Amino acid sequence: MLVALILTLFPMLMIFAAFSDILTMTISNWVSIALVVGYGALALLASMSLSAVLWDVSCALTVLTITFVFFARGWIGGGDAKLASATALWTGWGQLDDYSILFALFGGVLTLVILYLRFAPVPPFVERLSWMGRLQDKANGVPYGVALAAAGMMVYPQTAVWIAASSV
To answer: What is the reported pTM?
Structure first.
């Protein structure tokens, strides 16, 4: 029962992160922290080997290093960097390629949609929505947490932590 509950933690946090990024253009630190803690709990409950956990941690730290550079250069937001790293902990090296390709594709589509929203006329009632105003503001970036979350959800059932926990 507890394993099943923790298995649902990842999708719930991904959905929350996506909606939070769309509505506020921020992803709270507690989401990334909860993902890390949840991974640890699930790995423990699933009796994953220390070497498997450390291998996933090395993946997350590598992604954190890369995304920190991207953040420092102003290419992505800090919440996106932390979410990508925490998600990489769950995907591990085994699914990182698929995760990266998917978030790049989803991010490209998302960017095109946002660009369309920024240049196309929208109905007046839509303009009054504060979150839509943020999305339309050309000074704002793209809520890339949506792409990160969608990609994470797609690869989650193939991850080592999911497979280990599903067999408990």
So the answer is: 0.91
